[in-house]
TrEMBL record:
One of its GO terms (biological process) is tRNA methylation. Belongs to the WD repeat WDR6 family. The lineage of its organism: Eukaryota, Viridiplantae, Streptophyta, Embryophyta, Tracheophyta. WD repeats lie at residues 251-292. One of its GO terms (cellular component) is cytoplasm. Residues 1121-1154 are annotated as: Disordered. It is found in: Cytoplasm. It comes from the Eukaryota. SMART domains: WD40. This is WD repeat-containing protein 6.
Length: 1403
């Protein structure tokens, strides 16, 4: 490194597991938080949180490349009531550092003072020989100037460190010199210090340090020894004495490793948690017991209760006087009584479990933290946390606000004993507010219940439909907003068993409530009226009724005459104005309508969504003599699998598109989009709420924009419990055991559901009402999530996502240009989009895009944004072909995200706008900072998922199956190894099932790269995807947009080893003239495999042939939108296997493709030679008919040219063998600052890293050769294109009428670039960034002739890095993201003096 000041490599925030927690209690002073502060360790950082304001105050880097394992703190001083001074000890691995934290409250003109924080390093202790397991502070003695820190190490030793002299003054080693998994210290001075050590032999040794000359006899008590030690001389003189360890007891009982120990406040009890999934309570006696053999210590007696309940290893524990808290790998935190009974279980973390738990007895605050990066704060109810007597009243007043009412309907007292057929019971409940409840019964009564704070309930009988007719359905249109009409605040609609409807207007602000207008009419025949629905957007004059067969009727309540009595029943002013016919004959469960957009959306009992037209002329028409029968516009079959749709709503009427959100019994929230031009519903996303088996509805909370995608609360059921779940913080707000959703129930949420919620349910004849309502003045919202939740498992891939590739061209380092989005794929199958922005909270937010089928691991992910256009003269469009018009917002310039993983799943996501500015228009600047400046915001929606059919592997693998399994093919199956047909005839699969099952577990995609190509004439956009599979196959796939149709394009063969890394280069081809006219592109794929080879593949001919054929197929009407992601409950079995014959036929050569569309989509089945495509849905609707007509036409188009229909196999353009001595883990290609080489070519640099710890740089260019020189071209030997780099310098290649040359210009190798395997690499042609398992990020300068020279390196906090990506966010400024077990951002900047060497590319 020549000049250290020329560049700077700085590690920023780490987003990963939380490894340490510690409370910081401030004295009760003005301006300071009444709740304790929280210190959290993550990576090499310490985060400081204010629990009262629920926000992060500051983050501090305390260790370099070492994870923080523990934190201890002690309040030192409080000056003038506005400054706190706290000593903090942080340890990790073999390091301990001592800091001073200064917290100052600076008053401002505003109500809230500004918090000023300063962390100063006091001491950095020498590196210990063994790992540090625990530290604690001794009580400071002013008289003796004693300031000691105690450090416990894994070799079962204790060290005393004097903080004044910065020296070690005492070291005591236990004679039991075994290694430890855990240690916990207790005591504030040496005389009463107790050490609990968890050994590798599953035992606990409790010991203390005593002077050698004062060792008590074997039979003496520890209490007497402590009295003797109190006579030691004061000061440091007694530390100069020789000390030894005195073992008090050995505790045996665990059957696994002891991971954590915790002392009670008085040192009389010890809690241990273990690998055996149990927690044990040990009473520590004062006596030291020995066996007959001198010096041998035995167990002190029987242990206390053994706590069983966790389903996996337990990582942490803490003990208070009245309760015990444990946290484990099963993602649960459990609260136990000291008698061993489990009092509460909290399960809100994901992934590999809860790592740390902490409890504050004064405020009953429970903090949990885990592998998923989340820190969650709960407030336990007072019955669980029995605080000290002097604090009991305060804690109860603060927490115990849940009111439980148990009431019965007025006539229930007439029946005693068990219920019979004549008993009156509740059929329906509806809240209007926190103290108002409507109740209907089977005897035809409608009641109103008024709840009082005293616990009393006042009943009012409103109407009585009939003596013998039960009320079977009820709906409420409440007063939330202005009064509905003529003083009426609530409209109640009830339907009875005779098919009669009764609608009543209630003036509920009177006491008792008064019945206003009442409408009665016959809505159907007996036992055929099952549902009634108001729609708030239509108002009280329109009401729907539903029958068991899916028929929906719309009724209009006419305005009564002025002379009509307010309480008289009106039966002749109700008109049936429309009747909606379902496509499925299944009962409608929920609906929503919009008079402005003239649409009605319904959900039925079997998960289907039906959309009807709702013409304004029908609603405002004056003729009521005849009803109109309306058929559906379109439908979506199985949006929630086969589970019932429980709620539906729509919003976002932009660009002729309507956003629809539905909830159902599959535990999912589904998002769909209705295109008015196409009259089609397409699935755009899904949120699976894993804690709920049924999601009944979704709420956005108070003062939220009506954006369906920004849902905050999910309300539903899990088994027999009612649950309100916070979707943002992933925390459980309410859980009430109620017996399940089938019981009559109702709920009401206030502006903040965490503080205001009501729930009522019926059990037997009793109505149970749970009301939690906190006044405005005492609002402290719990539970809370202090830190964003991230992946709960390891990440294998990441990439920067930038909508505009030119952000920051001015070179300014503003916050907008430095704010970035990162897409990550995880082992658990989830794909997340995380936003990084500078400031205190660098990791601003993280949203879950979705998950792969069955939770299959995501192995690779890549963004696709730039569109490459094929010149018009290459398409050769036939005469008469019409231009196809795009109809979606992002059709012209789509931004895609492609993820691949296990089970050979390819999932595509498309960018969509998710925010609304202040004017209500779509905007990219949806998030505002304190200065009012917006940050770019983005969101992706699910586009399509592709999965292979069973036995759909590469046909050349069939011969390998014979050799491995040892069986022969059936004689009826004639497999031609030379054939390449893409449209095989449908024949019965003859291979034995066991062959496919052996390879089924090995089917997983390992790498992906993709690019977009557009035909300017047909305006078709195709995403070409190259994927490498673990069975050593490489294939080229195509996704046509917006049709969502998947095609098999080509096979890249032969491939002897699995491909681990893929890159592509789109090289423009210019005519060899001075005009520099571009005549096309060369599409080159580059692969790195496990045998260390790097191969180049020319995809140009296959891409152009596919675009030619795709432009002749009218796919604009075949949008494959009738498909939902195959994940979550209700997905009908996940993968749907089809047994298709794989017998190919040899066809004449020609460019063609094979289309493969998933079954069950409702659009297309297989479009293949000799087979017919059928609609999966038999319903006769206009949409289905149009789809069937198009299917036949598309099939005929394919069959007309079937003679040329075959799959093509692409041989490698060239293979460079032995580049790496083992697997090629990562590749990255970049042009050298667009520096044009001679002969109209472009110079490219290919960087690779492998398991051999080496980095390679390969420079090459591509040049179009004159046609006249065709006779002089010597093409490379295609039969044996594999060479070493030294053996080839120039490669000529012929493609149809174009001849071009690829030249390999230089090759540089850094043998030991890292100390372990290289996992990630990135370059822009000037700077190269790499990472490896040595947990380093290294920066290299790419010099002349590809020479790599290391300029800087940084130890990062991410254990086991797996992937790296980078972006230029300004002139000479880069952001580097590294992912593995967590994710960290690293920033690299170059000084202005290096402009000659700096990067000119920007992001």
């Amino acid at each position: 490194m020549e000049k250290q000041s020329e560049w700077r490599l700085h590690g920023d925030h780490y987003l990963g597991e939380i490894s340490a927690l510690c409370f910081l209690h401030a004295p009760p002073l003005p301006h300071f938080s009444s709740l304790p502060y929280l210190l959290a360790g993550t990576g090499s950082q310490v985060l400081l949180y204010d629990l009262e304001s629920v926000k992060i105050l500051r983050s501090f880097h305390v260790l370099e490349g070492i994870r923080v394992h523990g934190i201890a703190c002690r309040l030192v001083d409080c000056k003038e009531g506005s400054v706190l001074s706290v000593k903090i000890a942080v340890f990790g691995e073999r390091r301990v550092k001592l800091f001073n934290l200064r917290i100052e409250m600076v008053p401002e003109s505003q109500d809230e003072p500004q918090v000023c924080l300063e962390l100063t390093l006091l001491h950095s202790l020498p590196k210990f020989s063994h790992w540090v397991l625990d530290v604690c502070f001794f009580k400071e003695d002013i008289a003796t100037s004693s300031h000691c820190l105690v450090v416990g190490c894994s070799d079962n030793s204790v060290h005393l460190w004097d903080m004044l002299t910065s020296s070690s003054i005492l070291e005591v080693r236990n004679p039991e010199r075994c290694l430890l998994y855990s240690m916990r210290l207790w005591g504030d001075e040496l005389q009463n210090l107790l050490v609990a050590s968890g050994t590798i032999y599953n035992e606990i040794i409790v010991w203390k340090a005593v002077p050698q000359n004062c060792t008590p006899s074997l039979g003496s008590s520890v209490k007497d020894h402590i009295n003797l030690s109190s006579s030691f001389c004061n000061g440091f003189n007694h530390y100069s004495q020789q000390y030894q360890a005195l073992n008090i007891c050995r505790l045996a009982g665990h059957e696994g490793s002891i991971f954590r120990l915790a002392w009670s406040s008085n040192g009389s009890k010890l809690v241990s948690v273990s690998d055996d999934r149990s927690a044990r309570i040990w009473p520590i006696r004062a006596e030291r017991e020995v066996s007959d053999n001198s010096g041998e210590i035995v167990d002190t007696g029987s242990a206390g209760p053994v706590l069983f309940g966790h389903n996996a290893r337990i990582w942490d524990c803490c003990i208070l006087d009245s309760l015990i808290v444990t946290a484990g790998e099963d993602c649960t935190c459990r609260v136990w009584g000291t008698d061993g009974n489990q009092l509460k279980m909290i399960k809100e973390h994901i992934g590999r479990g809860v790592w740390r738990c902490l409890y504050d007895p004064k405020f009953s605050l429970l903090v949990t933290a885990g592998f998923d990066s989340a820190i969650k704060v709960h407030q336990l109810h007072s019955p669980l946390s029995k605080a000290p007597q002097e604090q009991a009243a305060e804690v109860k007043e603060l927490i115990d606000r849940t009111e439980i009412f148990t009431v019965c309907i007025p006539n229930s007292s007439e029946h005693t004993g068990l219920m019979d057929s004549k008993s009156e019971y509740v059929r329906s409940l509806h809240f209007t507010c926190e103290n108002s409840l409507y109740v209907s019964t089977n005897h035809g009564y409608l009641y109103h219940a008024k709840l009082f704070d005293t616990g009393d309930v006042k009943w009012t009988e409103l109407i009585h439909v009939s003596e013998e007719v039960p009320i079977v359905c009820m709906d409420l249109l409440s007063r939330n907003g202005p009064k509905l009409s003529s003083g009426v605040e609530d409209w109640i609609a009830v339907g009875d068993g005779k098919g009669n409807m009764t609608v009543t207007g209630i003036v509920s602000d009177l006491c008792p409530p008064k019945v206003g207008l009442t409408y009665t009419w016959s809505a159907g025949i007996e036992r055929q009226l099952l549902g009634t629905f108001w729609c708030k957007s239509l108002g009280y004059r329109y009401i729907f009724t539903a029958d068991p067969r899916g028929k929906l009727k719309l009724w209009m309540l006419c305005n009564p005459s002025q002379s009509a009595s307010q309480n008289s029943a009106i039966s002749n002013n109700v008109s049936l104005i429309a009747e909606f016919i379902s496509s499925f004959d299944i009962r409608i469960m929920c609906l929503d309508a919009s008079s402005e957009e003239e649409v009605l959306i319904c959900g039925d009992l079997r998960g289907n969504l039906i959309l009807y037209p709702l013409l304004r002329s029908i609603l405002v028409g004056s003729s009521f003599g005849s009803e109109v029968k309306i058929t559906p516009l379109t439908y979506f079959k199985g949006a929630h699998g086969i589970s019932s749709v429980s709620g539906i709503s729509m919003a976002g009427f932009v660009s002729n598109q309507i956003e629809i959100r539905s909830t159902g019994g599959d535990g999912c929230i589904c998002y769909l989009e209705y295109d008015r031009d196409r009259q089609s519903l397409q699935f755009i996303g899904m949120k699976r709420v894993k804690e709920l088996s049924l999601v009944q509805s979704v709420s956005s909370g108070a003062n939220s924009v009506d954006d369906l995608t920004s849902s905050k609360y999910a309300i539903g059921f899990a088994s027999t419990d009612f649950i309100i779940w916070n979707l943002i913080t992933e925390t459980k707000v309410v859980q009430v055991p109620c017996g399940g959703w089938r019981r009559p129930h109702s709920y009401y949420l206030g502006d903040v559901p965490e503080m205001r919620n009501c729930f009522a349910y019926v059990k037997d004849e009793i109505i149970y009402i749970h009301r939690f309502w906190i006044p405005e003045s005492e609002r402290k919202i719990f539970p809370q999530n202090l830190h964003i939740q991230f992946h709960g498992r390891e990440m294998h891939s990441l990439c920067f996502v930038s909508r505009d590739s030119q952000v920051g061209l001015n070179g300014k380092h503003d916050l907008s240009s430095r704010s970035s989005w990162i897409a990550t794929g995880c082992e658990d199958g989830t794909v997340r989009l995380t936003r990084y922005s500078p400031g205190v909270e660098n990791w601003f937010s993280s949203q879950l895009l979705g998950e792969h089928v069955g939770g299959s691991a995501v192995r690779s992910i890549c963004p696709v944004s730039k569109i490459h256009t094929i010149p018009a003269d290459e398409t050769n469009m036939p005469n008469g072909t019409e231009r196809q018009h795009a109809t979606w917002d992002t059709r012209e310039n789509p931004f895609l995200l492609i993820s691949v993983g296990a089970k050979r799943v390819i999932t595509s996501w498309v960018l969509r706008t998710s925010t609304i500015d202040n004017k209500g228009e779509a905007s990219d600047d949806g998030v505002q900072d304190k200065t009012g400046k917006g940050f770019p915001s983005m969101s992706f929606q699910w586009l399509s998922t592709d999965m292979p059919t069973k036995y759909s592997g590469i046909r050349k693998k069939t011969e390998d199956l014979e050799n491995i399994v040892g069986i022969k093919k059936a004689s009826s199956v004639n497999i031609d190894a030379e054939s390449r047909s893409l449209f095989p005839e449908r024949k019965e699969m003859q291979l034995r099932t066991c062959i496919g099952e052996i390879y089924e577990n090995d089917w997983r995609y390992l790498a992906v790269t993709a690019f977009l190509v557009k035909d300017p004439v047909s305006r078709i956009t195709v995403c070409f995807i190259v994927v490498g599979c673990s069975d050593a196959t490489l294939s080229l796939r195509a996704l046509i947009l917006p049709s969502r149709l998947w095609f098999d394009v080509a096979l890249l063969v032969p491939q002897s080893s699995p491909v681990l890394a893929l890159q592509h280069a789109i090289i423009p081809i210019f005519q060899p003239s001075e005009d520099k006219i571009q005549i096309g592109n060369a599409y080159i794929a580059i692969s790195g495999s496990t045998d260390g080879c790097i191969a180049f593949w020319d995809l140009t001919e296959s891409v152009e042939n596919f675009m030619l054929r795709a432009s002749t197929l009218h796919t604009e009407n075949s949008i494959d939108c009738q498909k939902r992601p195959r994940t979550g409950r209700g997905s009908q079995g996940g993968r749907w296997w089809r047994s298709l014959g794989t017998t190919p036929k040899k066809k004449p050569s020609g460019g063609s493709v094979s289309m493969r569309v998933e079954e069950g989509t409702g659009v297309l089945n297989d479009v293949a030679c000799g087979t017919s495509s059928k609609l999966n849905d038999p319903e006769n609707t206009p949409t289905a008919c149009s789809q069937a007509m198009f299917t036949a036409s598309l099939e005929s188009e394919v069959n007309t040219d079937d003679s040329s229909s075959e799959i093509c196999e692409i041989s490698p353009l060239h293979v460079l063998s032995s580049i790496h001595q083992s697997g090629v883990n990562c590749l990255h290609i970049s042009d050298m600052n667009h520096c044009q080489s001679f002969n109209n070519g472009f110079l490219y640099n290919l960087l690779s890293g492998g398991d051999d710890q080496a980095l390679h740089c390969l420079g090459f260019d591509l040049t179009l050769l004159p046609t006249s020189s065709e006779s002089q071209i010597k093409a490379v030997n295609v039969e044996n294109p594999t060479t070493k780099f030294e053996d080839i310098k120039s490669l000529n290649h012929c493609k149809q009428n174009k001849n071009y040359r690829i030249r390999f210009l230089y090759h540089d190798r850094v043998a030991s670039a890292h100390n372990s395997a290289v996992k990630g690499i990135w370059t822009d042609g000037t700077w190269v960034f790499s990472t490896g398992l040595d947990q380093r990020v290294r920066c290299w300068y790419l010099g002349e002739h590809g020479k790599l020279s290391e300029q800087a390196h940084l130890v990062i906090s991410v254990p086991e890095p797996e992937a790296l990506d980078a972006r230029a966010c300004g002139r000479n400024h880069y952001q580097i993201a590294v992912a593995g077990r967590g994710m960290q951002m690293v920033e690299f900047s170059v000084s202005p003096d290096m402009d000659g060497r700096g990067a000119d590319g920007f992001c």
